[in-house]
Amino acid sequence: MTTDQSDIDIKKSFGAERDAKIAGLLKGAVDLHCHSGPAAMPRILDHHEATMDAEEAGFRALVFKDHYYVGMSHSAMIEKLMPGLQVKLYSGVALNNPSGGINPHAVDHAIKTGGQIVWMPTLAAKNHIEQSAKATKNFPASKKPMLKAEPLTVLDEAGKLTDATLKILDLIAEADIILAGGHLHVSEQGILFDEAIRRGVKKMLVNHPTYVVEYSDEDIRSFAALGVHMEHSICMFVEGRGYKHDGARLKQLIELAGIEKTLLCSDLGLTGSPRPVEGYRRIVNTLIEQGFDDGQIRALTGGNAIKLLPADG
């Protein structure tokens, strides 16, 4: 496998008939995890380019994710400057150090400016930092050195959720937006999601359960049974620097949670990997090869995700 940029960015052909089938299946796709730029880390496309790609492919919605800043203003301005745009643009807040960490004020601001998702700490999660010698060893670095992250957790010294975390859960429940586990360890996420359910949070998401957060197969099965969606990152199943699992493993992971509780989102935009829409094309081909039917593929690549966004999305 090569990760040479000139190879990866070229649209891969699967044959004219298969290409046409894939294009049809991607009409209405939804990407809840698009890492376009500008960003502190190198990106292969910006928000405008990601929007153009998604629009051309007939996507229904696109969520810009950055580890350091909210993207709602970018979404609003792009939609204003591109009248007639069919793809809906969204963003949210990642609770890392630049947002004040586990900060209810940052969440409140995100909600009031149209944010649709709250990612618990990612790069600054205590779990992410503790895995710097293994799982996150090759995590993309910023273009310029940044201040060392201060480790974040949603738990206090007694192992209970902090007051700030509880306030955030209430804000999410009231606004009926998505709670994402970020890079918190599965042991933290279990406590977090249990309390979220008690407080009325309806939309819950585990980001890349097989990476950093250390979900076991049984964890995936049991959390999905509670109503939590499993979001698998396409970048980990297609050619590129993020590749970790083959199609057979993807099929197994989908079966663990069930079609209805599984989402496939790109987590793409990083260098050394395909553009987000191209990643979707490749994962759809993988799903076809693994025997999934058209209805299942549509659910995995958009039908399930759109239910987590506003009804007019």
Summarize the model shown.
The chain contains twelve helices and nine strands. By secondary structure, it is an alpha/beta fold.
Q: Overview of this structure, please?
A:
By secondary structure, the protein is of the alpha/beta class. It contains twelve helices and nine strands. The chain has helices spanning 5-8, 16-25, 47-57, 72-81, 104-112, 126-130, 163-175, 186-198, 217-225, 247-257, 276-289, 294-306, and strands at residues 30-34, 61-64, 88-91, 93-94, 117-119, 178-180, 203-207, 229-233, 262-265. The strands form two sheets. Strands 4-5-6-7-8-9 form a six-stranded parallel beta sheet. The protein has a three-stranded parallel beta sheet with strand order 1-2-3. Helix 8 links the parallel strand 6 and strand 7 (203-207). Helix 5 (104-112) runs parallel beside helix 7.
State the distance separating the first and last CA atoms.
Answer: 37 Å
- Give the percentage of residues in beta strands: 5-15%
Shape: globular
Task: Please identify the oligomeric state.
Answer: single chain
Main-sheet strand order equals: 4-5-6-7-8-9
How would you describe this structure in keywords?
313 residues, alpha/beta, 39% helix
Task: Give the arrangement of secondary structure elements.
Layout: H1 5-8, H2 16-25, E1 30-34, H3 47-57, E2 61-64, H4 72-81, E3 88-91, E4 93-94, H5 104-112, E5 117-119, H6 126-130, H7 163-175, E6 178-180, H8 186-198, E7 203-207, H9 217-225, E8 229-233, H10 247-257, E9 262-265, H11 276-289, H12 294-306
Parallel strand pairs: 1-2, 2-3, 4-5, 5-6, 6-7, 7-8, 8-9
Helix pairs in contact: 5-7
